[in-house]
Every structure is written in structure tokens, then in C-alpha cells.
Amino acid sequence: MPFLVLPLVTALVTPDAYGQMIILSTVMLLGTTVFGFGLDTSIFYAAHRGSSSNVAANFASAARLLLFAPIIAGVLFAALAMFGTFTFTGVEPLPLAISIFSSSIFVTGNVYATSIYRLRKSLIRYGVNIVGFSLVQQSTKLALITIGNDPVLAWSIGDLVGSIFVLIQSLPVLISSIRNSATSRRRILRLVKRGLPLVPSRIAQWTLQMSDRALVVGILGTAAGGIYGLAAQIGGLSGIFIIELCRFMLPHLARAGGEGVGTLWVRRALPIQFAASALLASGIAFSGPVLLGLFFHDSFKDGASLIPAFAASACIAGWFYSVTDFVGVTLGKTGRLWIFTVIGGIASVGINLAFLPRFGLIAAALGSVVSYGLMFLCGVLYAWKELQSYAAFTRTTLLYSIVVLASILASVPFASANNFVVAAIGLGLTVPSGVLVIAFHHRFNSKV
Q1: Would you say the pTM of this structure is higher than 0.90?
Q2: Together in a domain, 175 and 202
């Protein structure tokens, strides 16, 4: 839905206004990162440990905490934004405060409910939650931008309306869990203790994913930020599906943690995540520049050459999330994960500060590739012995993933809004082979 609306939105606003909207999106993502307190991982970790009554009590404790804590934190930070204590370059206080508060509402409605839906394999309810949010959010934004005269404020109100939809849809699950099982301060503290170490990691992930937008706006201006932000959204489109795939595999990894080293659940999950990340990223890397040329306003076409770099970043990010989900959910080790993302965040900021003024937007886009690469390397080295013990890699899927990533990066100099030849060759070589590799792996590893 966001991608379908983007051509209409960018036709109605200037790159300058869209650059401010991108800043609001970064704030929304930061809020969902902080206000969730890492409890999604704590919920999955607790899902297959102990008796059913113990699991239900842990779930109820998480629900009680999520019902109040994110909103309280959101109100506090929104107030700071309104009074100018918490600011972002080029954005007025009111839309900034609305986006911050929206993120806390979204966390309250989304984190617990979607975790339970995935564990119970309630795919329809999960889909209603995710798709419904996007549909309500984007349609509200488009309607308000069309009829109003302040597109930036309209953007933030769309976030708020979509978040309220998620909260209303998820409240029955939260309340039912709290009513049906006892909670305790000890259980809440235990969940927080496991989840909080992930917050610095996720803030660092935000720094890696979104701080480049803020730096582009600060150094090159909001118009450049708009061009960069649109290219990042198109190039990162595969990341939406990659993240959902990682979330879909979390119950497998949780079950592997309960069964131990001899299980095949990890071997079934991680290789598919690696190959699918590469497959999805290649589809966007080769088609994205052409799509930008066909469906978006000419003022944004300079961003076409950035799209393959963003797709490569999404691919490596998918690999990193696969490894860290394995470490956090299967092994139950969350204490050091923040170090990897801090390394990536520092690298991203450093690369942007050093090279963005001289080389322009391409420096920021390639900087994200380097940063995610460092994070992934750190994660693999940290969990190398355990990854081998659980047979997490297979030769075929690993080789395909590496070759596809190399082909995406090789296409960066040739990407443009009008280069249909590169798009056709790239898609023809990577997509059919990726489908075959994943199907082959699934066939021989589906019995667990």
C-alpha cells in the first residue's frame, strides 16, 4: 500500500515537503524501536519454555506492560517535541509531536497482538493488523494531502489514525490475556530484563537505517532529502517482505530453542531467509530504477541510481536479522547484540559525515551497504559455533545469496530510470534461479 500511494503523493508535493515527511517517518520508526522495550523477542523466547500456565502468565505480564508503558513514554516525548526540547531539522513541532505519540499507540496495539498471532499461526488476523494499518494510514495521508494545504501535518495525522486502528483492533487480545492469567512484578521485570538490552541495539539499527536521511537533510537540504528518501523507500521495498519473512520464521527458531541442538528447525528457516532476502532484493534492485522512471515525477528521477545500493542494504539486513533472531530467540542471548548495531550505526554516521559533502547521495547509499556488512560479519563471528552446531547454512543457498548480492552491487553504475536492458538481464538471471534454489532447499528440509 505505501508503495502504491507514493506516486500520487510525490506528484502532489515538492521534494522539499517530501523530505520533511521522510524525517517524520524516521521519528515514527525510532519511537516504535524505543517504546517496544524489546518485548517482542521476550515473548517469543518465553513461548516454548515452561508449562502452559507459566507461558500464559508471561504473556499476560507482557500485555499488562505494553498496555500502559509505551503510551506514557509517548506522551512524555511528544510534550518535549511540542516545547522544542526534542527537535528534528526542518520539521515543525506539531507534526513531530503527533508522529512521536503515534509510534507509542502503534507499539501498544502491534507488538503483543502480532507476536501472539504469529505464535498461534493466525495468519488472517495478523494480515488484518498489518494490512489494515497500512491501508488506513496511507488512505488518510492521501486524502488529507489532497484536500489540505499542509502536507507535512497531513502525513503525521495519517500515522496517528493508522496507529489508532491497530490499537482498537488489538485491544481484545491484550485485555483477554490480562484477564485470563495472573501477572506479577517479578515476571514483568524478567521480561523487561531480557528485552531492554535489545533497545540500544534497535536504536543503533534506527541510526543505521534512518540517520542518513537526517544527515542528508542537514547537509544537502530537504529537497535532496526528498529525492534520497524516495529512492530509499523504493530500494528498501524488499526489506518490508524480508522483515515479515524473518518474523514468520520466529516460531521455528523459538521451537528450536526448546528442542536443542539436534533439531532441524534452524536448518529449515535460516537458509530460506538468506536466499529469499537475496531474491527479493534482486527483484527491487533491477526493476526499481525503471519503476521510478515510469511512475514518479521527473523531479525525483535523480534517485534512480541509488536504488540498487538500497536493495543491497536490505538484503544484508535480512541476513543480519536472521542471525540475530537465531541468537536472541533460539539461544536466548540478547545482552551483546546491541554492540553489533552500534558498530554499524557509528560506521554509517562516520561515512556520511566524511563522504556525503564531497560525493553526494551515492555516498550515503553505499555507506548503508558497508554498515550492514559490518553488522552481519560481527553477528556471524559471534555465533559461528552455534550456527554450525544447528547446521544453519547450506552450500547452495549460501552460494546463490552471495552471487546475487555481488550482481546487485555490480549494477549500481548502470542503474538509471531508462535502462530497461539492465533490468531485464538482472531479473532474468536472479529471480528464476532463486525460486529454484528455495524450492530445492524446502523440498529436502521440510520434514522436521
Answers
A1: no
A2: no
